[in-house]
Amino acid sequence: MPRFVDRVVIHATAGNGGHGCASVHREKFKPLGGPDGGNGGRGGSIVLVVDPQVHTLLDFHFHPHVVAPSGKQGAGSNRDGAAGADLEVRVPDGTVVLDDQGRVLADLVGAGTRFEAAAGGRGGLGNAALASRARRAPGFALLGEKGQVRDLTLELKTVADVGLVGFPSAGKSSLVSVISAAKPKIADYPFTTLVPNLGVVSAGDNTFTVADVPGLIPGASEGRGLGLEFLRHIERCAVLVHVVDCATLEPGRDPVSDIEALEAELAAYTPTLQGDTALGDLTERPRAVVLNKIDVPDARELADFVRDEVVRRFGWPVFEVSTVSRDGLRPLTFALWELVSAYRQAQPPVVPRRPVIRPVPVNDSGFTVESDGRGGFVVRGARPERWIGQTDFENAEAVGYLGDRLNRLGVEDELLKLGAKPGCAVTIGDMTFDWEPQTPAGIDMPLSGRGTDIRLEQTDRVRAAERKVARRERRRSGGDE
Asked: What is the similarity comment for this entry (predicted)?
């Protein structure tokens, strides 16, 4: 028997970008024909796509890890690596995406709606793309960027026109089963319904959907009983219908008090998305009351007695029905369609969501420098941290190129303003350096061997070999005297 799963946590891992290639063109009579290393391919992204044929998050319950393919490494002869294909993941209509902090990232409503859950890493540049007037034959290439790794929570909120609310065993599942082709589980004990049941109801030439959700008890807005597992599924319903059990034998319960208890829980519940899908606030949705089980003589008598009281106190339309004898079902279905149609027409049309472009302020440097409290400094920013991941620290020329980029960005000037001293520890991302100030920006960089950087060899420190030569010279000069 298929299971209904409406909340899962997935581990999304986007593809890594391919590394760039460091290559030099070689052919007969042209041993050094210039750099020709290609760029690495970008990594595949993970994209959530709404599919009307998917109705549950069950697949993610058993397979929570979603991994996109990585990009390929570049090659010589200016051949770029293949890009990793984006992984499209099908999700049901009404899926809400939250991050690990509980913040809402996306509300996926409508067939074909897309959301990039994890972005693939950019491919590294090959040495052909890194060539410049000052660096004509780079002996290095940039590494591919790591793909985004995120833990996301997917919540499914049932998309239905009418939501049936009521105490356990009020007859909601029975009502759905007789006005639609749905076959929910029906039993004579409370909380039979553990998952929402969706049915399609026909009212003449018109059709609408009805959702039977788990029973509600006082304190549900605070998590009592099925609590939020129930309330989450009524946020998208255009019309709410109170199904009242008129044949209950529980002491202290009557139709009016049941409705008041339900309304108190609805008022106390705070939806995840305010104004969800242009339906307005939950307390403003149209209501109707169904007095159920009138096939029982005492229940019919009670329904006739409280009908006028319910209309006077709440002002909602009231219907007396029986799911056993099927009395009052046809007028109910047509009345519900009229409520749904009127409310949908009264709401403003849903405008397709446009991408939001947030320009970077003119005075935004793109990084920050803070003291770590131990004499060192920490540099934070998207670009510096990305450059760290793209650098091959076993290649001295690549390290020099990183220094050029940081210097042009203004990191070195900011360190000097904050009082950084030569040799102090500077941390960027997961890498810590011994900082050496005033690194030239590479405009008139002297030529050196491939994979090396002469600037890294320029230092005022006297090396051991130089001290040994100086000692020999002193001894020789002393002997000559």
From this structure: Belongs to the TRAFAC class OBG-HflX-like GTPase superfamily. OBG GTPase family.
